[in-house]
C-alpha cells in the first residue's frame, strides 16, 4: 500500500511534457510544494518556460536542472522574478541532449497557474520582453522610459545635470541614468531632499528591478544597496569607470519617502549629476603645470645667474690682472726711463776727440783695436779714450765706471782724476 501511495503521489507531482507538432505544450495546474515537469524528447536546441500566476504568490519560485530533480538555491532558475514577487516567471533552457527537470515550489495549496513550454531552434533572450522591448541573445533591450530584465518597469531617465523628483504620500518611483561609453570619467550623484523624515534610495545592482520586501533577502547585499537622504543629511554616490566599453550602462534607482503616508506635504528629491573629480583633476593639472613651469623657470634663472656671475667674476679677474700689469708697468717705466736717461746723459758727458788728442793711447781698452780706424773716439773725464760705439755699449750695460781706472764716469768726479802726463 505504501509503495502504491508513493507511486500515485509521485505520478501526480511529476509529469512528462508531450509536445504537439509545433513543439508547444501548455497546462493549468494547482499550486503545490513540489510540481515536477520532465522533458525527455529533446529535438530542439532551446526550450522556453513561461509561468503566469492567477493570483499573487510571494512564495512561488520556478527552477530547473538537467538529469536530476532541481533544488532551491542550488539549481538554476528565475530568482529575479521571485525576488520581485512577480506574477510572470520565465526560463530559458539549453539542454545539450540532457533530460530537463522543471520544478515549481509554493507554500500555498490554493490557487492555480498556467505553465507553457515550447521548443525552438531560435536563440531568444532569457526573458520575455514587454513594452515593445527588443529581445537579443544577451537579454532585452528596453525603450526609453522602461527598465528591468524584461522592460516591465516604467522609470524616469535622468538626462540633465540637475533633476527634481516629486513624491506624493508613500509612492515608490523608479529612475535610471544611462551612461554611454563609460570609460573616461567617474560619475557622481548628489542626492538631497527637503523632507525632514527622509527619502529611502535603493540602488539596483542588477539588470532586473528588485523591490526590497519586509523579509531580508538571501545574499541581499549582492543585489541592492540602500541609502537614506534627509534634509540635513544629503548623500553623494560615486560610480567609478569600469574601463573602455562600447556598451551602454544603466544605473537604476528606486526611491520612496520614509513614513510618507504620515506626511501630507509633497516630498522633493534633488539629483545633481556631475563628473567626479573633474574639478579636482582640472585643478590638479593646473597646479602641476604651474609647479613644473615654476621649477623650470627657477632652474633657468639659476643657470643664467650662474653664468652671469661667472662672467662678472671673470671680467673682474681680468680687470684686476690688467690693473696689476699696468701697475707693474707704471712702476717699471720710470726706472727704465731713468736708467735710459742716465745712460744717455753719461754718454753725452764723454768728449768726442780727434785721433791727435788721444795722448799716445793707440788702442781702445774695450775692444783692444786701434783707435785710428776712422771711428769716432770719445774721452772720459779721467782722460781715457774709447771708440764711441764701445763705450756706449759699456754704459748701456749699466756700467758707470771707467773700463780702465774704474773711476765714476759722472761729471762730479772729473776734477778728482788729473789728466795723464805726456
TrEMBL record:
One Pfam family from the record: zf-RING_2
EGF-like domain sequence ranges: 121-152
Disulfide bonds: 125-135, 142-151
This protein's UniProt keywords: Disulfide bond, EGF-like domain, Membrane, Metal-binding, Transmembrane, Transmembrane helix, Zinc, Zinc-finger
Protein name: RING-type domain-containing protein
Organism for this UniProt entry: Paramecium pentaurelia
Transmembrane annotation, as ranges: 283-309
Residue ranges constituting the RING-type domain according to the UniProt record: 364-406
MF (Gene Ontology): zinc ion binding
Keyword Zinc-finger: yes
Keyword Transcription: no
InterPro entries, per database record: EGF (IPR000742), RING-H2_zinc_finger (IPR053238), Znf_RING (IPR001841)
